[in-house]
C-alpha cells in the first residue's frame, strides 16, 4: 500500500491550486484522516514562487491549529519533509456534495428546504464570528469548503486563501483570490482589500444558492425563485449581497442576529400554514407500485442517474405517495402503496458497510417482525421514503420514520469499494466508500 509519512493512502478526496487532499489511514489505530499535501499547480509556482506558496501553506496549518471552535476544522499533525502535509479529521460529506454542485457552475444544483438552509447558515456565521474575532478573513467561502460531520454539524475548512486583518499577502495582479461565483466585487479587484464584509457577501451567495439552487440574479429585488413567502427573504439577502461593502452587515454577529429574526418569522409563517385544514389527498387504488428490488453495480461512468431512476441532480425521478400502516410489531411499518415492510427506526447510529451488513444479518437471525427476508433497500426503494418539503404545507405532514436517520445505505454498488446511499430528508443519492458511515434501514418484501 502507498504511504505518505507514516500514513497509508486510502484514496484521493480532492485537489486544488495548492495541492491534493488524500484520504489516509493511521497505521496503528486504523483511524481515517484527511491529509492536505503541498503540491501547487505549475501556474502558481511560476507566478508566486515555491517559497511564498510553502509559507502560505504552513500558515494555513497554523491558523487552523490555533482555532478551537466546533464549527471550524482543526489540524492534528504537520509533517515537513520531502512531502509537506498536514492531517485533519476526515469528513465524508460537504455542503457541496449535499447540494450536488459540480464544475458546471452555471447549472442549477439541489436546493435545500428553508429549515435546513437556516440551520447551516447559523453554523457558518458562528464559525465566521470566531474567525473574525481572531482577525482572520477566510476569502474562499463556498459549499465545497463547508464540511459536515456525522451529526450534520457544519465545519468551515480550507484556510489556504485566508489572511490576517490588515495583512498584505502580495498576491500578483494576474492571480484571483477566491472562487469567482462567490467572491465579492472588491475582492475580485484587489484581494488584499477583503475584510469581514467580503466573507459576509460570500456567505450570502451560499445562502441564496441553498434556498434556490441558483446564483442570485443581478437584481436581487426581483427574485421570484425564493421560497414562499418571497418577501421574507428579500431584505436579508439584499443586505448580504450589496455590491458596496458599506451597505452590508458589518459583522457575522449582526448577520446572525438578523438571521434569528428571519428564522422566527419563517416559523410563524409555517405554523400559520399548518393551522389551515388539509385538502383531501388521492389514494393509490391500483395496487402496490413496483419498485426495483434487486441490487445494481452501476460503475463510475455512464448514465448513472438513469440507472438509479433519478433525475440529472440525482433526486427521485418518481415521487411516491406513501400509505403507511403499522407492521407486525410496533418497530416496523408497512407501506401499502409499495408493498414494502420497513424498519421504523433502523440502526441507532451510523455504521461502515461491514457493520451495516452485520445489522442486516442480525435482523434475519432473530426473524425481526416475523420475517427472514431482510435486506438492504435499493435506491428507488429508499427514494420512496424521501420527505418532500416543496411548500410550507409539506412541513405539517407527520413523518412516521426515525427523524434522526438521514443518510442510509442502499444495496446498489458503485464500485468494489463504494455503494450508493440516499439522504431521506434532502432527497438525493450519492456514492460512499465502504469505510464511510451511514445509517441502516432494513426492508423486506415486496409483499403483494
TrEMBL record:
The Protein kinase domain, residue ranges: 7-267
InterPro entries assigned to the protein according to its UniProt record, in alphabetical order: Kinase-like_dom_sf, Lcl_C, Prot_kinase_dom, Protein_kinase_ATP_BS, Ser/Thr_kinase_AS
Keywords on record: ATP-binding, Kinase, Nucleotide-binding, Transferase
Biased composition (Basic and acidic residues): 186-195
UniProt key word Kinase: yes
UniProt: ATP binding residues: 36
Listed Gene3D superfamilies: Phosphorylase Kinase, domain 1, Transferase(Phosphotransferase) domain 1
Residues covered by region (Disordered): 171-195
Any one Gene Ontology molecular-function term assigned to this protein's record: protein serine/threonine kinase activity
SMART domains hit by this protein: S_TKc
Stated name of the protein: Protein kinase
Protein source organism: Desulfobotulus mexicanus
Taxonomic lineage of the native organism: Bacteria, Pseudomonadati, Thermodesulfobacteriota, Desulfobacteria, Desulfobacterales
Amino acid at each position: 500500500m502507498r504511504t505518505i509519512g507514516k500514513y497509508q493512502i486510502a484514496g484521493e478526496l480532492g485537489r486544488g491550486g495548492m495541492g491534493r487532499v488524500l484520504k489516509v489511514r493511521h497505521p496503528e489505530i486504523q483511524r481515517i484522516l484527511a491529509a492536505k499535501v503541498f503540491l501547487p499547480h505549475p501556474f502558481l509556482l511560476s507566478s508566486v514562487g515555491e517559497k511564498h506558496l510553502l509559507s502560505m501553506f504552513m500558515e494555513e496549518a497554523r491558523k487552523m491549529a490555533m482555532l478551537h471552535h466546533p464549527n471550524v476544522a482543526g489540524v492534528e499533525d504537520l509533517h515537513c519533509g520531502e512531502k509537506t502535509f498536514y492531517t485533519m479529521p476526515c469528513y465524508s460529506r460537504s455542503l457541496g456534495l449535499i447540494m450536488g454542485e459540480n464544475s458546471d457552475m452555471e447549472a442549477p444544483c439541489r436546493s435545500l428546504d428553508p429549515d435546513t438552509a437556516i440551520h447551516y447558515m447559523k453554523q457558518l456565521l458562528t464559525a465566521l464570528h470566531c474567525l473574525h474575532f481572531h482577525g482572520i478573513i477566510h476569502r474562499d467561502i463556498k459549499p465545497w469548503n463547508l464540511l459536515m460531520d456525522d451529526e450534520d454539524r457544519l465545519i468551515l475548512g480550507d484556510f489556504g486563501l485566508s489572511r490576517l486583518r490588515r495583512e498584505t499577502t502580495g498576491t500578483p495582479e494576474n492571480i484571483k483570490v477566491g472562487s469567482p461565483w462567490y467572491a465579492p466585487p472588491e475582492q475580485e479587484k484587489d484581494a488584499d482589500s477583503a475584510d469581514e464584509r467580503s466573507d459576509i457577501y460570500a456567505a450570502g451567495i451560499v445562502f441564496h444558492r441553498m434556498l434556490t439552487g441558483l446564483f442570485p440574479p443581478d437584481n436581487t429585488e426581483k427574485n421570484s425563485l425564493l421560497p414562499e413567502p418571497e418577501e421574507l427573504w428579500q431584505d436579508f439577502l439584499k443586505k448580504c449581497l450589496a455590491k458596496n461593502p458599506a451597505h452590508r452587515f458589518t459583522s457575522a454577529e449582526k448577520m446572525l442576529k438578523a438571521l434569528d429574526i428571519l428564522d422566527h418569522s419563517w416559523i410563524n409563517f409555517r405554523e400559520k400554514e399548518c393551522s389551515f385544514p388539509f385538502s383531501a389527498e388521492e389514494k393509490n387504488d391500483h395496487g402496490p407500485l413496483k419498485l426495483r428490488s434487486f441490487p445494481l453495480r452501476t460503475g463510475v461512468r455512464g448514465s448513472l442517474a438513469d440507472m438509479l431512476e433519478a433525475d440529472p441532480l440525482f433526486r427521485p425521478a418518481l415521487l411516491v405517495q406513501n400509505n403507511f400502516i403499522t407492521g407486525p410489531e410496533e418497530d416496523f411499518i408497512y407501506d401499502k402503496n409499495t408493498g414494502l415492510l420497513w424498519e421504523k427506526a433502523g440502526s441507532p447510529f451510523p455504521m461502515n458497510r461491514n457493520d451495516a451488513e452485520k445489522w442486516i444479518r442480525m435482523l434475519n437471525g432473530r426473524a425481526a417482525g416475523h420475517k427472514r427476508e431482510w435486506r438492504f433497500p435499493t435506491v428507488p426503494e429508499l427514494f420512496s421514503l424521501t420527505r418532500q418539503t416543496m411548500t410550507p404545507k409539506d412541513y405539517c405532514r407527520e413523518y412516521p420514520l426515525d427523524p434522526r436517520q438521514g443518510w442510509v445505505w442502499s444495496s446498489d454498488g458503485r464500485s468494489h469499494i463504494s455503494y450508493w446511499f440516499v439522504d431521506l430528508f434532502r432527497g438525493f443519492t450519492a456514492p460512499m466508500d465502504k469505510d464511510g458511515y451511514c445509517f441502516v434501514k432494513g426492508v423486506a418484501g415486496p409483499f403483494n
